[in-house]
Every structure is written in C-alpha cells, then in structure tokens.
Amino acid sequence: MIKHFKVLNGEATDKSRLSHIQKISLIILNVLLIIAAIIASCLYTHFINIKQRNMNANSFASTVETMKQITANYIDTEKGYVDNWAHYIEFHNMDLSQALEYVRDTNTNQDRYVHFVDMQTYTAYSVYSNSGDNIAHCYAEIKERDSETDRIFIKNMEMMFDDGNDESLLLGKYRDDVTQLTVVSVGTRVTLRENGRDIDYLLLRLIPVDSLKKAWVFPVAFQSAEIGMITNTGVYVVHSNSMKDDTFIDLIRSYNYPDDYNKADEFAAELAQNENGLVKYKNSKGEMCYWYYSAFDNSSGIDILGTIKCDVLDTTENNWIVVLIICGVLILLIIIDGTHILMINRQLRETAIYAEQASKAKTQFLSSMSHDIRTPMNAVVGMTQIAKKNINDPQYVSACLDKVMLAGNHLITLINDILDISKVESGKMALSPESVQINSLLENIVNIMRQQMNDKNIKFDYYAHDIPFDCITADGLRLSQIYMNLLSNACKYTDKGGHIELEIYEELNDCRGDNVRLVYRVKDNGIGMSEEYMKTMYDSFTRAERSSISKIQGSGLGLAIVKQFTDMMHGTIECQSTEGVGTEFIVRIEFPISRDMTNKNDISGIQAEYTKSEFEGMRVLIAEDNDLNYEIVETMLDEYGIICDRAENGSECVKIITSSDDNYYSAILMDIQMPIMNGREAAKLIRQSAVPYVRDIPIVAVTADAFAEDIQACKDAGMNAHISKPININNVLKILRQIRSKEQK
C-alpha cells in the first residue's frame, strides 16, 4: 500500500511539474505577446504620426500655394489698372502733366501711388507731392548703388519697360522717398507726347507692403503661420516677423549652419533652381520650422515664402490608451479558455469566408446584369425617339415599336434574373436549356445594336450561312449575352466610320451525337488591345488604361461575362487583336439539335389564341395609385372587351368591392405599394368579409415586388395569384381566362 502510494505520488508530482512548466511557458508567452503588442502599437502610432505630419505639411504647402494664387490675382488686378491708364493716356496723346492729372483724378484708391519713371535718368514723377515736390529719386539711387539686389531690381524695371513683355512682374520692395512708404509695384510702358515728339516712360503703381499683407489670411488650422515674399536668390521682397537678417539665405546660415557656410550655399542653389520646395530649418528664435517656397512664374524671379513652427503640425501623440486597451484585451483573451476561443475564431472565419463568397457572387451577378441592361435600354429610348419623329408614318412607327418590344423583352428577362435572389445568395448560376431559333436570336441582337452602329456611321456586315439546323437546345438568354457583349464591345471600341463583320455558321464535324457546333465570329477594325492587356482581359472589372478609351463607358465586366458563360456551356473562345488594327473574337459552342420549332426568343406581343369574344363583358376592379400604370392595364384589357373600374388605394378598393352587387366584379387586380392602405392589408380585410361573393372574389397581385418572400406574403394575405411588373398582358389574360371559365360553369 505504501509502495503503491509512493508510485501514485510520484506520478502526481510529475504531472504537477509538467503543469507548472506549462503555466510558466504560458506566462512567458503572455508577457511576450503583451510586449509585442506594445511595440507594435508604438510602431503603428509612430507610423500614423509620421503620416499625419506629412499630411499636415502638404496641407500647409497647399495653403501657401493658395496664398500665392491670391497674391498673383491681386497683382494682376493692380496691373490691370496700370494697363488701362497707359492705354487711355496713349490714345489721347497726353503729355506728362496731363497724364499725372488724369491718373490723380481716376485713382480711386488713395493708398495707391503712381510714378512715371524716365528710364533714361531713372527720375520719377509722382502723382503725390510732398511740400510741392513730386519728384522721386529712389530709382536713381537704386541704380547708383549697383549692388546685386539693386541690379535685379533694375533688371525687372527694364523687363517691365520692354514693349513685348505683358507679364505681371513685381518690383519690390523699396522705399518711396516722396510718400516715405515701403512699397512694391507693378507697371508697364507708356508713351507720352512732349514738345511734338514721343517719349517713353515706365508707369508704376505703388502698393504699400502693409496692404499686400492684408490679403494673406490663413485658416484656423494655420493661424500662427507667417508669409512673405523673396527673390529666388533669397533677398526679401516682403518679410514677416520671423524672417530676420538681411536675406533669407543669411537667416538659414546664421541659425542653422553657423560653422558650415557650404550648407547654406547648397540651399541657395536649390532655391534658385527649383520652382517650389518644403524644407525644415530653425528661425531666428531657434525654433524648428517648416519653410515652403513657390515661384510665381519662371521670369519674375520672385517666390512666395510661408513658414510655420513644426510643433504646430506635429500635433499627433502616442495614444497610450489604445495601447492599454490592446494589452487588456490580450490578457483577457489569454485568461479565457484558448481552445474555446480558437473554436469561435474558426467558426467566425468560416462564416466570414462564406459571407465574402456570397457577397462576391451577388456583386458579380448584379454588376453583370447592370452591364447588359444599358444596351437594350438604348434601343428602347432610341427607337422611341425615332417613332416620335415619324409619327405620321404608321408602318415605320409600327416597325420601331416592334424593336422597342424586342429590347424591352430582353430587359424584362434580365430584370427577372436579377430578382432571382436564390441564385445570387447560393453563388450558383444554372443554365436553363430551351428550344432556341438561331436566326431569330441573332436578328434580335442585330436589331438592338444596329441603331448604335448607325449613330457612329459604322459599316456593318452580317453573314449567316451554313445553318442547316436553325433550332437548337440552349440557354437563349446566356447565349444572347455572349453574342451581345462581343458585338457591343466591337461597336464601343471602333471609331466612327469603322467596319464590323458579324458571321455565324454551324459545323458538324467531330460533334458528339445529335449535336451541332455553333460558330460566332465578330471582327472589327477598332483600337485593338495590347498583348499585356490580353493576358487579363477576361478578369472582372479590367479595362485597358489608355486615353483613347477613357471616355468610353463600361464596367469592365463584358469579356468576363462572355468567358464565364462560354465555359459554363463547355465552349471555347479565341481572340486575335493588334493595337491600332482591330480585334477578332471567335466563339465555338456545341449544342443539341432541337426538333421543337417553336420560337421562344420572339415575344411578339398578344398571342392569337386569346380572342375578344371570350372576355366580352367581363368586369374587373383595378387597385392602382399610379395613373400611367392604370392607363396601360385599362387600355390593354379594353381591347378584349373587359370593363375596368379603378380604386386609387387599398382602402377605396375595400369600400368599392363591399358596396358592389353580387357577382358585379369578376376579379380584383391589386397593386401592393399604395397610400393609405397597401394591397396586402386590403386583401386581408376583403377575405374577412361576411359576404361570400366579397370573401371569395379572386384577387391577383400586380406589383413590382417580385422577390420570393414578396410572392409568399401576397399568398399569406389571401391573394390567388401574382403577376410582376412590367406587365405581360398574356399572363393577365391567362389568369382571367381561368376565372371566366369557372364563372361559366
């Protein structure tokens, strides 16, 4: 017994030791995970900080660019005054005294002063006089000093004086010795008449620097920013409080590279060569700042210069709360049973994958349908417009309406597929084989596309030959989509005046059993495709990146739809294309030969089997709030002798039917979405009536609500049948015939 106890105790000790090791390992793992989470959070926060700082800096640069544009517009406006004055003075052959008097009288802004500068002597005559003296000597003094800055100034004056120069150059800054103001100026050349001969002057409009500064207003985010103007050599034109020293280059050298002048010279070269730039340097207070400069134009030699302290833009901080939350969540997850968490995560992953697959299937399906709706819709609108223009030609209008019906029928079929939610949610799209007449199907497609080709003046040749078996078993809608997409793409990517060939024929060689191979060839001389794009042309949402097709509408799903449906039908598709030459597609699909010669692709309207005599005198109550919808149904039924009454909402429908005589109405055609009371609520009240005739009257839902759950909701409300909009009159007559036959028994 003692020995046995020792053995058990030894096993327990081993298990305890193993458990202890596991706990220590788990703790170490937890600590490592927490440390890793903290490091990752810090790195991520740092990355976000850098990204935000760069965004702020770019935003500041954009703001300075805006200020530059405002300044340029301001200068252009001031230049406009000068140009107008010069034109008027020259037109009236004024002399200097007359010109001074004219400008003095027409200068509405008293803060603007005007100089006429003799460019031979650089003597200026001002419209403003100080103690009777209106002669300004500042330009002659600048010319005489002949420093590097002064030479740039004089050069700009000479450029303004040049007859061939129309640019809005800016002279600045300098002090006007007449007004004692620090100014910048804009100007142009003007010719005055003196003593019977023409003398050219430089007409300058002086802008006080303080007035220019008032145009610079930063948004709230950059209220502490400052702005000024410099030449591309760093000489101040207009400087702010932070722009100290004699030049901007001297400021950079003094407070950033006091021991290395070469660095400042390198920046000076960069400033002279580049049109704009964003740099970081200390200001005169030793504060690190962003400095953004941008040239007004290539010839002015003047840059706008904005500055803001770095700490204003570096506003983001490490969010330690986020770090603590992440660590807390990690600790919580570690405490919770790991196996259970793994199981939940696995279930979540499976659910997410399933949801993603369903979403992709739904998106792809809906996008595909949307892509194909546009083409027949164009035929509907186009042929309707043509019919309106030829309203006096009944035969031509009838032909147009037939084509509208063909396109409309194609739209209805596509919409019905879109509403088939079970296909979308399952991610599957099953083919629906039926008897299809090839010539009829191709004729419908050609009729839909012909108008688009006529609009682009495209020559269109259509060859249908060697078709011994016109009737095959195939999914007519999917086959039509394949053919329509290829022909539509050829039309879209072929320029006006181009050429498209469409050929279709059958092959019998090597076919399985009682099958035939249908060959469909589309060739165009359009823009073609590159070899690189052809590698991915069947992928969803792919389009060639070229300026020549940037304005062509399309979702990039056309060829993906063609490839998907061709593969589903076990067919093949070949493509040959050369950029600038054209494209050719050949689709080969094998189909069983059908002995049923019924043309299921051609819905020509009312079938001959319905006659007026079998519906004559029948009366129905139509619950419909839309006037146009009621007019359509009433007109269709009136052709068969059916009398229609209208209720504009569900409540009115209930009142009319309950107050009518027995057997007065044969049926109710009930819309669903109506004001006051909807169709389902009205049907429930009618079914609750104590009068047998009212309670048992057939109610047919006629509505655009065509989802499976909508149909079931109508049945649950007591309705006998469901017809989806847009209305196919054959479906209505089929139900009314059944109702009439029961009445006659």
For the largest beta-sheet, the strand count, sense and barrel status come to:
6 strands, antiparallel
- Strand arrangement within the widest β-sheet reads 3-2-1-6-5-4
DSSP summary, beta strand count:
23
Q: Judging from the principal axes of the Cα atoms, what is the shape? A: elongated
Number of domains: 4
Given the structure, what is the number of helices? 22
What is the third-level CATH name, the topology of the largest domain? Beta-Lactamase
DSSP strand (E) fraction?
15-25%
Report low-confidence residues grouped into runs of 5 or more. Answer: 1-8, 419-427, 550-555, 598-608
Query: What helical percentage do the residues reach?
Result: 40-55%
Mean of pLDDT: 81
CATH structural architecture of the largest domain: 2-Layer Sandwich
Which structural class matches the secondary elements? alpha+beta
Text of the CATH class of the largest domain: Alpha Beta
| First-residue to last-residue Cα separation | 99 Å
Radius of gyration: 43 Å
Condensed summary:
With 745 residues, this protein is of the alpha+beta class. The protein has 22 helices and 23 strands. The strands form five sheets. A six-stranded antiparallel β-sheet has the order 3-2-1-6-5-4, with helices on both faces.
